[in-house]
Amino acid sequence: MQEVRQHFLLVFLDHGYVTSLITAFLPLWKTMNSDLNEVENWFSGLWLTCLYTDERGIQCKAYDSVLGLPMDLQISRVLVLISIGTGGFALLTAFLGLEGVEMCVRKPDVKRGLLILSGVMTWVSGLTTLAPVSVVAYTTVVDFWDEGFPDVMPRWEYGEAMFSGWFGGLGQVIGGTLFFVAVCMGDYDLQRLSVPVSPELKPRTKHYLKTEVL
């Protein structure tokens, strides 16, 4: 039963990590549509800016300078890279800590430590995914409602990648929490199996005195 729970959690973590990984490289963090020129749609991500037109399709271009980026994008890039690294390390340690993997089989304490480490790294990966998405979302809202911009100027809005980032990061945080729950349930199962079984009580026999009837 414990092995089934661990494999299920590993699949759950894998989906959350893949979602966060795809979100990091999608140029759909922010979108902008101009009312003056409806045939042009702009898309912006952490690494690329794309322009879509009906005539030429989609054209993407990397940012010219890293130092020239806004501070929120620079911070988001660093956090996303940390999320990718910690998430990959969490999946590796979780795989090595599974009961079905023929490694450290005779060392259950080592496997337990690997699962706990995987849960911590998954938490870090999920939080470092949620943080950049939330930062970019906050700056997008602030810029959208900035009264200093004329009303005729187009403004950036939320893109699809923002929601997938929230979904992936939240999935990783939940997965890390469930890993700790699985470890606690495994400890409980081991403790229950280690309790000695009380010997069976011998049936009591009644002794009757034989009396003679006069």
TrEMBL record:
The chain crosses the membrane at residues 7-29, 78-101, 113-141, 161-184. It is a multi-pass membrane protein. PROSITE patterns: CLAUDIN. Its main location: other. Belongs to the claudin family. Claudins function as major constituents of the tight junction complexes that regulate the permeability of epithelia. This is Claudin. It comes from Crenichthys baileyi (White River springfish). The lineage of its organism: Eukaryota, Metazoa, Chordata, Craniata, Vertebrata.
